[in-house]
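Good morning,

Attaching, inline, the backbone tokens for the sequence recovery test we're adding to the shared suite. The designed sequence is right after.
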């Protein structure tokens, strides 16, 4: 039995890999019939992969990235009272105008994975700037955790929960120095809300950093 199909999804598991194959609609009935007829026999799969085509797919926006983008659109819409399509158009325009986006149009159906990552980061910074509550934890949307922590410092947003924040110095400033006058550019720090700031002091920095998977940045 020979079935022509394409690779739909690949997931790495703890033990091995799960590959989901996709069959064209007009061949589904025939495939199901063949599988039923040979149900008691071993199914041998010979995978012939179009490397160039698969690499192109890997470079495109992922389903998870698209989901995160639309979740952020929903958050902005809920805050502003605008509908999601209006928010979508405005955020695309802002992104293209305020960044070095290389194309004349931004299409969420065809942008690259890297461009989608940059767009997500831009929207999160916008939400931080305008006090828009983000439903999903923004830290998970950043590919680069250090970049996320820098944004939190810049916008004074808690790196753990996204609330209004103050600066926690991982590298302590010596007693007797005015924190507002000391140059702390070479010291590690993190933006934390009052609750998480107190917790960091109470349980110790190492325990806190391990618990929330964060670190201090300069």
């Amino acid at each position: 039995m020979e079935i022509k199909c394409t690779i739909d999804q690949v997931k790495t598991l703890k033990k091995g890999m799960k590959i989901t194959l996709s069959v064209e609609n007009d061949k589904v009935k025939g495939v199901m019939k063949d599988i039923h007829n040979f149900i008691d026999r071993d199914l041998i799969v010979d995978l012939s992969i179009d490397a160039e085509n698969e690499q192109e797919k890997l470079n495109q926006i992922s389903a998870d990235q698209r989901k995160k983008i639309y979740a952020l659109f929903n958050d902005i819409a809920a805050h502003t009272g605008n509908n999601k399509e209006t928010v979508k158009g405005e955020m695309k325009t802002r992104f293209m105008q305020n960044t070095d986006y290389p194309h004349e149009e931004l299409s969420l159906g065809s942008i690259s994975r890297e461009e989608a990552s940059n767009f997500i980061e831009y929207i999160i910074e916008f939400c931080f700037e305008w006090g828009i509550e983000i439903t999903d934890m923004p830290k998970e949307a950043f590919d680069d955790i250090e970049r996320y922590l820098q944004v939190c410092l810049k916008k004074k947003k808690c790196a753990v929960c996204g609330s209004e924040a103050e600066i926690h110095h991982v590298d302590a400033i010596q007693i007797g120095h005015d924190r507002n006058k000391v140059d702390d550019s070479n010291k590690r720090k993190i933006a934390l809300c009052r609750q998480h700031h107190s917790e960091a002091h109470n349980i110790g920095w190492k325990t806190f950093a391990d618990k929330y998977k964060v670190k201090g940045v300069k």
